[in-house]
Amino acid sequence: MAHSIELLFDEATEAAVRRDWAALAQAGLPSQGRHRSPTNRPHVTLAVSNHIDPAVDAELTELAHRLPLSCRIGAAMVFGRATLTLVRLIVPSAALLDLHAGVAVVSAPHQTPGPFAHSQPGHWTAHVTLCRRLSARDLPAALEVIGADDLDGTFAALRRWDGDARVDTLIG
What we know:
This protein is of the alpha+beta class. The chain has helices spanning 11-26, 56-64, 94-107, 139-146; strands at residues 3-9, 43-49, 51-52, 69-80, 83-90, 111-112, 127-135, 151-162, 167-171. α2 (56-64) runs antiparallel to α3 (94-107).
């Protein structure tokens, strides 16, 4: 199972994303809100690998002190072909791209076998996931449910997710 380093939102921003999750579920569509794990929460993945050593936490503390960081949650986007993942873009500010690059540099030596290519600077698309396994025929309904308004929000914390143990650790 993958390990990752993720940005978490403040309470108000998280609540806004959870409203999208709830609206999708109420419409009978796939939703991240259906996952009942206590660690399931809206986030933006900064780094991902098969394994990330917990020793990285101490080295990421300085970067975690850059938070809180303003963000803009923008347009809906779709990943995939046969089954779709519906996400909302996180508009890439200079501060966010700088934080991402810093996390990539600091965390790379702790990742085994190394970082996944799509999480590397220059290849990364900042996003928050709304649902997975959405059929193409349900896409118009999902887009209608979530609407098109951008949202100004805040990143409030950094965490490391251990997908093997299903444990998250706040950093900083």
